[in-house]
């Protein structure tokens, strides 16, 4: 997959929107490594990225799967929704970007391919709530894009409990995690929810050990 151009985004944009970094590129690499599965087996009709930020991941996917899939980005930050639209336009990709929390508003069990690079940095819940209280306007408070609360899983755990209602019967989730999020524990949690999760890629970067979990329903 081509890495999208981001030269249309400025330093001023990145004051409001998460700038693509090593975690973003790891998720892109995982998708590229799995392209044969995505295109020949999964053949998704609806692809959704939660928390699209600058839009680089969903834009890359939309360009690659433009012949068959509809791509949708969601974010609670209106600045991120706008940045995603601009990134898609800059790169000639067709997708929709809507402001919502996670996948609220989508029809039940309709997502074939779900992507999520969640707020994963371990913080105290008190710190997270304090930061949120400083500015409730999400476009002016980047804490939403990185602060994950206790174990860095405050948002991730909410999504996992909703996953059965989000994914289509054959749907797949690619989830980015930090070592401190305890990915092995999440694998066990997903098994209790009747999902199988495997670590499909991992990467050490300065100060972080990142993983991509590939998650699908357990087939009886």
Question: In total, how many domains does the architecture comprise?
Answer: 1
Mean pLDDT: 89
CATH superfamily: Vaccinia Virus protein VP39
Could you say which structural class the secondary elements and strand pairing correspond to? Answer: alpha/beta
Instruction: Give the ordered list of helices and strands.
Output: HHEHEHEEHHHEHEE
Read across the widest sheet, the strand sequence of neighbours is 3-2-1-4-5-7-6
Main sheet specs: 7 strands, mixed
Provide the β-strand percentage band: 15-25%
First-to-last CA distance: 33 Å
CATH level-3 fold name: Rossmann fold
Q: Do you know the CATH architecture?
A: 3-Layer(aba) Sandwich
User: How many beta-strand segments?
Assistant: 7
Number of helices: 8
Uncertain ranges: 130-140, 145-149
Helix content: 25-40%
Radius of gyration: 16 Å
What is the highest CATH level, the class?
Answer: Alpha Beta
How would you sum up the global shape?
globular
InterPro entries: DNA_methylase_N6_adenine_CS (IPR002052), Euk-Arch_PrmC-MTase (IPR052190), PrmC-related (IPR004557), SAM-dependent_MTases_sf (IPR029063), Small_mtfrase_dom (IPR007848)
Catalytic activity: L-lysyl-[histone] + S-adenosyl-L-methionine = N(6)-methyl-L-lysyl-[histone] + S-adenosyl-L-homocysteine + H(+); methylarsonous acid + S-adenosyl-L-methionine = dimethylarsinate + S-adenosyl-L-homocysteine + 2 H(+)
Main location: nucleus
Keywords: Methyltransferase, Nucleus, S-adenosyl-L-methionine, Transferase
